[in-house]
Amino acid sequence: MFAFRLDSRSGVPTYLQLVEQVRRGLLLGYLVDGEQLPTVREVAAALVVNPNTVAKAYRELERAGLAAPRAGQGTFVIGNDDQVPHGVHVKLAARLRAWVRSAHEAGLAPEQVRALVTTVLDDENTAARTEAA
């Protein structure tokens, strides 16, 4: 079963962290169409958060079309056609892990690694939009 994790230092509200983890889980194939999410109570107990926070995340997932409640059964993931193919995921994840290790060995802290990755992604997106125009 899918397990959520929280980063108390991220500054991102708890419910949004949960939503993002489901979104990422779908894209990477960790979650699949029809898979049941843990109950609100299970998540709240595991993460030691207010059940209303988890319920808010699940409502947001429903609004985003990523999950749907089934009366008396729980909340289930709705399929995603944007999933990264498994072979591509494995290959790129291995290369990314090696790069992250190199960044850590070079003395970069996790937030510096995130900032660098975000900057490169933003630069690539800007370049792609410029080429498309």
From TrEMBL:
It holds the Pfam family GntR. GO terms for molecular function: DNA binding; DNA-binding transcription factor activity. PROSITE patterns: HTH_GNTR. It comes from the Bacteria. InterPro entries: Tscrpt_reg_HTH_GntR, WH-like_DNA-bd_sf, WH_DNA-bd_sf. Gene3D superfamilies: Winged helix-like DNA-binding domain superfamily/Winged helix DNA-binding domain. Residues 12-80 form the HTH gntR-type domain. SMART domains: HTH_GNTR. Signal peptide: none annotated. Keywords: DNA-binding, Transcription, Transcription regulation. This is GntR family transcriptional regulator.
